[in-house]
């Protein structure tokens, strides 16, 4: 699977360098659309990656990470009431309580 168009990629710039993320609207159209809208609004600017598992995944974008309280990072935002857990030993699965 590969990206069909240039707008199917996102550039994430950090103090450590840039990342190019491939987006797949044919697989997750609402998620891609929501991500693109929020990115254009600047919603993710200044947020941190609060969960990093090398070789597996990164997780970030929580607006709570913009404050100085690291204890609330990864707990809120617009999707705060919806959550799932990607298991490291089976990355294609999701456990949604």
Automatic annotation (TrEMBL):
Q: Name one GO molecular function term.
A: peptidyl-prolyl cis-trans isomerase activity
- What positions does the domain PPIase cyclophilin-type occupy? 6-90
Instruction: Supply the alphabetized keyword list.
Output: Isomerase, Rotamase
Q: Does the keyword Isomerase apply?
A: yes
Q: Where is this region: Disordered?
A: 60-97
What Gene Ontology biological process does one annotation of this record name? protein folding
The record's listing under SUPFAM superfamilies reads: Cyclophilin-like
One Pfam family assigned to this protein is Pro_isomerase
E.C. number(s) listed in UniProt: 5.2.1.8
Protein's recorded name: peptidylprolyl isomerase
